[in-house]
Amino acid sequence: AAGAAPPVLGWAAATNTVDPHALLLFLIIFVWTPPHFWSLAIARKDEYARAGIPMLPVTHGVEYTRLQVLLYAVLLVVVTLLPFITGMSGLIYLAAALALGARFLYYAGRLKFTRRPELPMRLFRYSISYLMWLFAALLIDHYLPTT
């Protein structure tokens, strides 16, 4: 949860309040974190096991982890709709969230249902750009007039 705190801390520092919109940003990062790290953990499972680090693929197996990545990806897509649903953002953000989320689901689905060794790292790398573009879309939507 600590990794998802910076938006809330920044919001509080800038406004002296903890707004529900800041909590939405926290929630997006909080839900994004598991599929991001678990895809890396699948790719590096043997290294984590040798180091004695109890990552999910080590403790519960790769198949279980693949399922969890897919479930969290579905949850992530739902959570990323909340800024639009609550009026925090507009159509620009919604379009970006849907497009970016569809690709995240595509990679998570392929990770779950196919056994290609490059897929965990492909999802991991995509998840980094996904979060950047999602938040960029939120900024663009906020500052670009749509009327």
Describe the protein in words:
The chain is mainly alpha-helical and 147 residues long. The protein has one domain. The chain contains 8 helices and no strands. The mean pLDDT is 96.
Topology of this protein?
Elements: H1 6-15, H2 20-43, H3 45-51, H4 56-60, H5 62-80, H6 82-85, H7 91-113, H8 119-143
Helix pairs in contact: 1-2, 2-5, 2-8, 5-7, 7-8
InterPro entries: Protohaem_IX_farnesylTrfase, UbiA_prenyltransferase
Transmembrane segments: 22-43, 64-85, 91-111, 123-144
Keywords: Cell membrane, Membrane, Transferase, Transmembrane, Transmembrane helix
Would you count the extended β strands for me?
Answer: 0
Q: Note the main sheet.
A: none
Shape: globular
Spell the H/E element sequence: HHHHHHHH
User: For the terminal residues, how far apart are their CA atoms?
Assistant: 37 Å
Strand content: under 5%
- Overall pLDDT, averaged? 96
- The amount of helix comes to over 70%
Number of domains: 1
Which spans of ≥5 residues are poorly predicted at pLDDT below 50?
Answer: none
CA radius of gyration is 17 Å
Structural class: mainly alpha
Number of helices: 8
GO molecular function: protoheme IX farnesyltransferase activity
GO biological process, one term: heme biosynthetic process
Keywords: Cell membrane, Membrane, Transferase, Transmembrane, Transmembrane helix
Membrane topology: Multi-pass membrane protein
